[in-house]
């Protein structure tokens, strides 16, 4: 199911670009996630916001299981997902077989995603630069708050799903250079 199917408020009714520049979080819950080999990896179950920075930290994806039974949940750093505007789904550059080793959890035992131990697991699997809640991120957040003089829920280009670096043209290529 795609975000267009869950657009009860008409958010995307007048969309003229390759994809929406801003998207409602609740319309993304349930979106399919595929890899570049066109294998279905799962679906977005939850979106985790960093309340200090106002940015999306992780998307929680489901993988495996049948009718919600035995499925594994795992957090994917938001910047690792790209929007496939042609097929109205997300892409994650990871092989399906690799997800069995991804840091995961079950729905009754959520980890402390802000802990250093969790972040070390995430970095080991997804690579450097995905630390949520790191000291550098906290300092940048504090500096941004001081400059803005208030709370903001703005996203940087790393989380953008407009025609910029976070989009895909459906060819399996991302505009991102990571």
Report on this model:
The structure is a single chain. The protein is an alpha+beta fold. It is 16% helix and 23% strand. The chain has three helices and eight strands; from the N terminus they run H-E-E-E-E-E-E-E-H-H-E. It has an eight-stranded mixed sheet, with no helix packed on it. A hairpin with a 4-residue loop joins strand 5 and strand 6. It is globular. The C terminus is likely disordered.
Features:
8 strands; disordered C terminus; alpha+beta; 16% helix
Q: Which regions are unreliable across 5 or more consecutive residues at pLDDT < 50?
A: 134-178
Order of helices and strands: HEEEEEEEHHE
Strand order, biggest sheet? Answer: 7-4-3-2-1-6-5-8
| Through-space gap between termini | 28 Å
Topology (elements, then pairings):
Blueprint: H1 25-28, E1 32-34, E2 40-50, E3 55-63, E4 72-77, E5 81-84, E6 89-92, E7 104-105, H2 116-126, H3 135-148, E8 167-168
Question: Could you give a quick summary of the protein structure above?
Answer:
The chain has 3 helices and 8 strands, in the order H-E-E-E-E-E-E-E-H-H-E.
């Amino acid at each position: 199911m795609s975000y267009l199917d869950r657009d009860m408020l008409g958010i995307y009714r007048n969309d003229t670009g390759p994809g929406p520049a801003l998207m409602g979080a609740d319309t993304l819950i349930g979106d399919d996630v595929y890899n570049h080999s066109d294998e279905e990896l799962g679906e977005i179950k939850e979106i985790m916001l960093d309340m200090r920075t106002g940015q999306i930290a992780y998307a929680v994806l489901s993988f495996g299981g049948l009718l919600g039974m035995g499925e594994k949940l795992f957090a994917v750093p938001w910047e690792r997902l790209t929007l496939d505007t042609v097929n109205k789904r997300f892409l994650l550059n990871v092989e399906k077989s690799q997800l069995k080793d991804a840091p995961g959890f079950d729905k009754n035992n959520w980890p402390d995603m802000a802990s250093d131990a969790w972040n070390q697991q995430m970095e080991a699997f997804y690579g450097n630069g995905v630390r949520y809640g790191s000291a550098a991120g906290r300092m940048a957040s504090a500096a941004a708050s001081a400059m803005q003089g208030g709370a903001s829920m703005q996203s940087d280009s790393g989380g953008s799903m407009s025609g910029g670096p976070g989009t895909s043209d459906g060819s399996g290529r991302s505009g991102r250079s990571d």
